[in-house]
Amino acid sequence: MREVAVIGAGMSRFGDRMDKGAAELLLEAFDEAVRSVDKGMEIKDIQMAFFGNQGVGGSQLALLAAQMVEAIGLCGIPAFRVENACSSSSFAFINAVQAVASGVCDVALAGGVEKMREISGKQVRQWMGVAGDNEWERQVGITFPGAYALAAQRHMLDFGTSREQLSMVAVKNHECGFYNPKAQLRMKITLEKALKSPIVAYPLNIFDCCPTSDGASAVIICAKEIASKYTDKAVTVLGYGAASDTISITNRKTITALKATIRAAQMAYRMAGIGPQEISFAEVHDCFTIAEIMAYEDLGFCPKGEGGKYVEAGHSRLGGMRPVNASGGLKSKGHPLGATGTAQIVEVFKQIRGEAEPERQVENNKVGLTHNAGGFGGTATVCIFGMR
Amino acid sequence: MREVAVIGAGMSRFGDRMDKGAAELLLEAFDEAVRSVDKGMEIKDIQMAFFGNQGVGGSQLALLAAQMVEAIGLCGIPAFRVENACSSSSFAFINAVQAVASGVCDVALAGGVEKMREISGKQVRQWMGVAGDNEWERQVGITFPGAYALAAQRHMLDFGTSREQLSMVAVKNHECGFYNPKAQLRMKITLEKALKSPIVAYPLNIFDCCPTSDGASAVIICAKEIASKYTDKAVTVLGYGAASDTISITNRKTITALKATIRAAQMAYRMAGIGPQEISFAEVHDCFTIAEIMAYEDLGFCPKGEGGKYVEAGHSRLGGMRPVNASGGLKSKGHPLGATGTAQIVEVFKQIRGEAEPERQVENNKVGLTHNAGGFGGTATVCIFGMR
Predict the structure, then answer these.
(1) What pTM did the predictor assign?
(2) Residues pairing with A5 in the sheet
């Protein structure tokens, strides 16, 4: 396979973005991505574009890809919208990588956008809810906080994971997000505050849940053989994987692991020719604190059931053995569904190049991993990046 | 680029399909596709899946790709949903081709599905309408029949295209669809009947408009070098192209041509190394009769403005110089949005292999072209196939 590298990456500020529509948010992210290409680039070099978007709010509910390329000055090029719920833009990224790897084009754009804050909470629940199983779960009231709450209860029961360990994920991610100027919830929280916050779905408190967000992200990739034209600090795609699972959690053998994550990780590790021990840092899909704990296990960072102990031991904090979500994660940075996947890649790109804010720059930044899940793991991607 | 071939293709019957949900319709199409692989295949050979769907009705409004692979027995593999309005599944097909061409996998599935008949006409208009420009057109009442009616009026004014010529497209496509057991509207119509049918948006009558439909389609592709394992009659992807344009028609210099089609065709002809004169037959996006007339011109089958004369001369009818829409087209076969793109490829696959119903088998069937447009040409694809 032809090797592919990331040469530019940018994201909008996440959060309440009533100041901009979806197209303008994407332009904000794209502008930063283009400016980050340090030897400069003409945007007309970009030959294809792939956008992730679930379609929660925003003005253009279909054919969004065409609107997006027009907004960023690339009207005319092939543009694809990919919808795989919360993992939409990492799947869009994989399509972009495959386009460049196939040789049909040399430079491509992958990005994502979502506007969730302009519609009511009830509408957001409806629109997000459609990524859940329609027949057996959604219509009887299982929302995503409910599903992850069940997973947390089972994890606590089976493995002795504690309520405190869940909150430790939140405290850690808010600590990082505080130093990230793009993050939505920039505040440090104490373990006590997290533990005492109102319950959403037992055992998950408000501080176990990521917020709803507006935001966009954009990543420019090219064939590795021409990357030096654009930058001497290209970040190579070492491997990637993707997988699916039943949407319905009722049909699964376990709810304390996401099989799609496990499968995607296997594919990505195999392609990269490395194992979890060689991952220096990661951005994982912490839509809920329990999701991050499960991700440690599913990605092979620790044995099954030991995710709670892993965070308690400090292995995943900044300065720990393998920092996770130095961006603040979905929890503090925010989670505009369609933008999250490529936003994780933006973070890994910055970290590997040593360009994150000093307070949250990861020290061992050689190999970074992104993990992005859709629904309750109905889909998942894992991508591995490094400079080589 | 690694060459890619179609080894199997199938589609559900299009039309009122209250008997099946989206997943079951896709299974119907997939089953036929697998059975069409004449040397046989194990479905577990399929490594990735790409589905087109706009999301008009159906039970699973997000994360549909995961539901689809589960329904067809492939739960676990990477599955992507692509939404580019009416051109969704041809864009999904291009992603699949690029995946195989990149070398990441050898066998992939592209398909599409839509359920439009279970919701009310008003809901269908709302859901289809969201592929139109939101800010300047949709909200002031321009629906797709309205937009294409404007195009037809302008085409008549600028080029002398007649009301009769529009209807000749309908008569021709219904003639073919009558012999297609998968078609929704299996009836021959007379020119008089078409001309006297009720007006939808002047000058477009009811017989100038395609119906709303339920349906699914599926295409199995593989690296050409391994195709002989599955069939001795593989149909090669000779070239493909895709493009975008402004969604808003207000912003265009002309409404009598779709620039996205012109661009996509240029890319496809260049990749295939042939020109329009070498196309033996085609499936084009005749959502409205005027759209087919514009497609003749945009694809280079005839000079600009002469599309009306082209159909009148019989060049595009069965037995003519270059048959167009021998399947019945969207007009008679039906138009389940997300299924249309790959359904066109199903037809070309059958025609090239000489496997269409005798009454509608194209005689010169060497090189077939598909043309699929999204919205009012906000996106478009052109793919070229042949046996070589």
Answers:
(1) 0.98
(2) A222, A236
Say whether residue A377 is in contact with chain B using an 8 A CB cutoff: no
Would you list the DSSP string of B213-258? Answer: -BEEEEEEEEEGGGGGGT-SS-EEEEEEEEEE--S-GGG-S-SSS-
SS3 label, residue A238: strand
How many Å lie between the alpha carbon of A296 and the closest alpha carbon of chain B? 20
Cα–Cα distance measured from residue B360 to residue B177, given in angstroms and rounded to the nearest whole number: 8
Question: CA of A239, closest CA in chain B: separation in Å?
Answer: 10
Q: Does residue B335 have an active-site annotation? A: yes
Q: Backbone dihedral region of B89: left (phi > 0), alpha (psi from -120 to 50 degrees) or beta?
A: alpha
Contact B384, B367 (CB under 8 A): yes
Tell me the shortest Cα–Cα distance from A199 to chain B, in angstroms: 27
A194, A170 in Cβ contact below 8 A?
A: yes
Torsion of the alpha carbons at A26, A92, A79 and B274, rounded to the nearest 10? 160
B378 at A interface, C-beta within 8 A:
yes
pLDDT in tens, B321-370: 999 999 999 999 999 999 999 999 999 999 999 999 999 999 999 999 99
Any B CB within 8 A of A140 CB:
no
Residues of A with Cβ-Cβ distance to B81 under 8 angstroms: 82-84
Q: Give dist(CA A288, CA B115) in Å, integer.
A: 33
If you ran DSSP here, which 8-state letter would residue A63 be given?
S
- Indicate the residue type of A30: F
| Interface confidence: ipTM more than 0.95 | yes
Of B155, B174, B285, B335, catalytic: B335
